[in-house]
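Tokens as discussed.
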């Protein structure tokens, strides 16, 4: 009887030992693809219609649609169709277009919310990469989410690290976009 009890206790102990949550070694995730692009945004200011690649389509009551609002641009909504290049030269041949919108969503600092796609139709890439996320503009390096894509980037997901590479007042800015895909199909 005593040996049966020891056997049952040993089985219970073994069951709990085997079924206990074992964290194991945390698996390191590595990108399956890494790309770097630059996109150049020229905001329409009433004087640059020939060069503008974005326009303010919504403004707070005290603002207008030609000049970004005071107070951290809060309430401005802009749409864009910006050239994408492989280097930081605005005059380089574009490899695609960045198309989407951003809006300034905080009253006490420069932040924006971004929703856009990179649209490619060149010899090197075909398809789209879709991005979404908050952009705390005053932070040097910030991450937004890559939520999917089409064509060469079908179902790709990952992180895009964006950095303001250059800006000229409220009219022009250039972003460096370092894309790391963690899911590639």
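Sequence:
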């Amino acid at each position: 009887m005593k040996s049966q009890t020891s056997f049952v206790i040993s089985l219970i102990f073994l069951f709990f030992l085997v079924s206990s949550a074992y964290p194991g070694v945390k698996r390191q995730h590595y990108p399956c693809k890494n790309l770097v692009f630059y996109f150049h945004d020229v905001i329409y200011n009433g004087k640059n219609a020939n060069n503008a690649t974005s326009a303010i389509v919504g403004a707070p009551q005290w603002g207008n649609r030609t000049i970004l609002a005071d107070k951290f641009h809060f309430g401005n909504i802009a749409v864009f169709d910006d050239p994408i290049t492989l280097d930081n030269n605005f005059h380089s041949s574009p490899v695609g277009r960045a198309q989407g919108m951003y809006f300034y969503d905080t009253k006490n600092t420069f932040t924006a919310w971004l929703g856009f796609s990179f649209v490619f139709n060149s010899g090197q890439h075909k398809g789209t990469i879709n991005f979404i996320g908050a952009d705390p503009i005053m932070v040097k390096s910030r991450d937004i989410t890559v939520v999917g894509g089409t064509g060469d980037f079908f179902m790709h997901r990952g992180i895009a690290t964006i950095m303001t590479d250059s800006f000229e007042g409220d009219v022009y800015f250039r972003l460096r976009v370092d894309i790391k895909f963690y899911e590639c199909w």
